[in-house]
Amino acid sequence: MAVRVKSFRVTNEAEENEVNQFLENKVVRHWGTQFSGDPINGIWHLFVAFEERHEQPERRTPRAGEGKNDRGDRGDRNDRDDRRDRNDRGDRNDRNDRNDRGPRDAKNDRGPKRDGPREKPPRPDHVVDVSQEDMPLYEAIRKWRNGIAKDKDLKPFSLFNNRQLQAIVKEKPQSDEALKPLLPEIAPELFEKYHNELLGLLSGAASNSAGSNGVDSNGAHASGDQSGAPASTDSAS
Q1: Termini Cα distance of the chain
Q2: Is the whole-model pTM more than 0.85?
């Protein structure tokens, strides 16, 4: 806007009001005054540099939510731009990493290919720790246990495992009270059902052992004058 200059001569209140009315729609940039004449009837000279005041367009009051939506839209656009920038940087970093590593064989990246399902490492064989004299009894009880498990669709260790079998063969219990502590994991109903058969095998083995040592059923040693035939025993297996 162009700056204009105007001078006024003010001698009374009416002329002062005219100046004020003239300047209502003006933007005053500079002004100066000078007084002349006697103190009572003197004249004020007023110099004013001004610009015309142009009407500003009426500002519309935004409805509720309009400003927020605009800010939300700008925020969404900024978020999308930020995500695109991060993605672009991530892609460039990935490409740089691949370039740094150089070309590779895909098979080397994936490692050696396995044919078929992964094989489980073989379980170490259980070492039987019983004497040679007790091995027939060990095998007899083991086969008896496995036969029951197969007939009743059970796992063999549901009755007793091989370590417990070793303990049974070594201890050779002859009663329920002596047998029960050696089978801590067997179900009560299975113990009640099969303990007599197991004790029968152990009792037969004890009788065989006594017979092989030359002891009759009454506990007396066989006479040396008897025939050389060994005493007959029933097989427990």
Answers
A1: 125
A2: no
